[in-house]
Amino acid sequence: MMMMSSSTTNTTFSAVAKQYATSLYELAKEQSVLKAITPLVGVLSQVIEKTPELIPFLANATISAEKRAGILIELLPSDTPDVLGRFLTLVIENNRHDELPDILACFYAKAEALDGIGLVEVTTAFPLTSTLKKSLETALKTRFSLKSIHFKETVDSSLKAGLVLTYNGQRLDATLQTRLTQLQKTLQQI
After folding, report:
1. What pLDDT was estimated at residue 23?
2. Cα→Cα distances 25→122, 123, 140, Å
3. How crowded is residue 126: how many other Cβ atoms within 10 Å of its Cβ?
4. Per-residue pLDDT of the chain (190 residues; tens, 9 = 90+)
5. What CA–CA distance (Å, rounded) separates 44 from 16?
6. Spans of all domains in the chain
7. What's the 3-state SS for the chain?
8. Which CATH number fits domain 15-112: 3.30.360.10, 2.40.40.10, 1.10.520.20, 1.10.1740.10?
9. Of 94, 42, 46, 34, which is closest to residue 69 (Cα–Cα)?
10. pLDDT score, position 2
11. How many Cα neighbours within 13 Å face the side chain of 51?
12. pLDDT score of 130
C-alpha cells in the first residue's frame, strides 16, 4: 500500500487547486502520460510535506521561476514526462506555490479515484496496526466500491481514542471525544 501525503488535513480542495489539478489531469490524459506521472505527483507531495522550507523557497521572487521549479524537477527521475515539469514551472510562475500541496493532492485523488483507488485520510491517537489497517481497507473498499485504498495516516495524541476518516469530502468522526459529546447532548435532553 503506497502512502500518499499532502499538507491538507482533509480532501476538500480550493477552487484554484481543483482547476490546476484538473488541467494537469486532462493534459496528462491527452498526452497518454497519466499513469506515468501519477506516482511522481505522489512522491512530490511527500517531499513537500516532509520539507516545510520548500514552499517559502518557492515563494522567493528573487530567484527566477524556472530555477525554483527546477529544484522540484530535479527531484524527479530523468525520464519524467515533460508535461509535469512544464506544469510545475507554470504553477511557480503564476505564484501558486502556496497551493502546490493541494494541487498535487487533488490531482492524485482525481487520478486514483478514476482507477478505483481511494485516498483515505486517517487520523488516530496511535499508529494503526496492520490488522486494523486491513480491516479498514476491507470495509472501505466495500462501502465505496474501490479496488484498493491508499492511506494517509496522521497521529494526533489529543484524540485519546478512536479515529477520524476522510474520503472524497466525507468525514467520519469515531473519536472518543465525539462519542462523549453526543452522549452529553443526549443526557441533556432527558
Report:
1. 93
2. 25, 28, 25
3. 13
4. 333 433 333 357 888 988 999 999 999 989 998 888 888 888 888 888 888 888 888 888 898 888 888 888 888 888 888 899 899 999 999 989 889 988 998 888 788 777 667 777 788 888 888 898 888 888 888 887 778 777 778 888 788 788 888 776 677 787 778 788 878 888 888 7
5. 19
6. 15-112, 117-189
7. CCCCCCCCCCCCCCHHHHHHHHHHHHHHHHCCCHHHHHHHHHHHHHHHHHCCCHHHHHCCCCCCHHHHHHHHHHCCCCCCCHHHHHHHHHHHHCCCHHHHHHHHHHHHHHHHHHCCEEEEEEEECCCCCHHHHHHHHHHHHHHHCCCEEEEEEEECHHHCCEEEEEECCEEEEEEHHHHHHHHHHHHHHC
8. 1.10.520.20
9. 94
10. 37
11. 14
12. 86
The residue type found at 169 is: G
What cell was used for 43? 512522491
The x, y and z cell numbers of residue 3, run together, are 502512502
Grid cell of 37 as nine digits: 506521472
